[in-house]
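Data availability (excerpt). The following record was deposited with the supplementary files.
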Amino acid sequence: MDECALAAIQVLDRAGVQTPIVLIGISWGGIVAPRIALKAPDRVRGMVLFNTTADPPNFSAWASSTMLTWMLALSAIDPFVDNMLLSIQLSAATRRDKPEIGENIVAPFRSWKRRALIKTVRSVLVDRDGVLEALSQVEAPTLVVSGAEDTILPSAMSRRIAAILPEAQHVEVPGAAHLVPLERPEVATALIFNFIEKLGRVVI
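Predicted structure:
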């Protein structure tokens, strides 16, 4: 995760971006964003973090995620794994009323190289370390958003982030699981724009 943060900072450098930015991260991106703020606080004006955590995995999460990496290696059970992943990423209402969202997730998912996919899943869900206590050093205003039905990174994890960050607000979105911006795009968009608008009113 720290390497991802350094890579993001390198992208800003190569793009010549010097003005402090608002970081928007979802799940993995939400794990990385605070690390960017810790490494380069002068580069971050604010953060919007969706469906994320600053905790290391507990034993239960570690075990289930390890099992998932084993299952991802078995091409014979791909359809079963795809259905399982959709069932934990999307709420029941989304899967029922907006099946195209699930279809759009699975199609590119299976286009990725299997070994790289497994390595990525492992780095995010199994091997990540925690930075929860360090978040007290982050001064950037932050909006932390969770899905009420998220079982991968539940709302309790988002609340812990908001409780430690010096200037943070937590919002739980009903009717959404692990992918709030996909399941409730109108809510996510409004939250982002309202947050950015308020940042513009703050004198720094």
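Summary of structural features: The CA atoms of residues 91 and 175 lie 7 Å apart.
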